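Key result, reporting period 2: structure in, sequence out.
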């Protein structure tokens, strides 16, 4: 699985799966780590998934 790639639904970049956070279900998030970190605002709880 180390060579698998996934496309970020926000920025459209094709990145290795390790660049996406792993959810409790075992699936990878649709947004890459960079986009997800920019999306979350620690002062607004509604931005958390």
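The corresponding designed sequence is given below.
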């Amino acid at each position: 699985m180390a060579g698998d790639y996934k496309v970020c639904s926000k920025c459209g970049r094709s990145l290795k799966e390790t660049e996406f956070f792993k959810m409790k279900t075992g699936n990878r998030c649709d947004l890459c780590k960079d986009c997800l970190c920019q999306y979350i605002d620690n002062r607004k709880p509604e931005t958390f998934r």
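The chain has a mean pLDDT of 86. The first strand starts at residue 5 and ends at 7. This case is discussed further under Risks and Mitigation.
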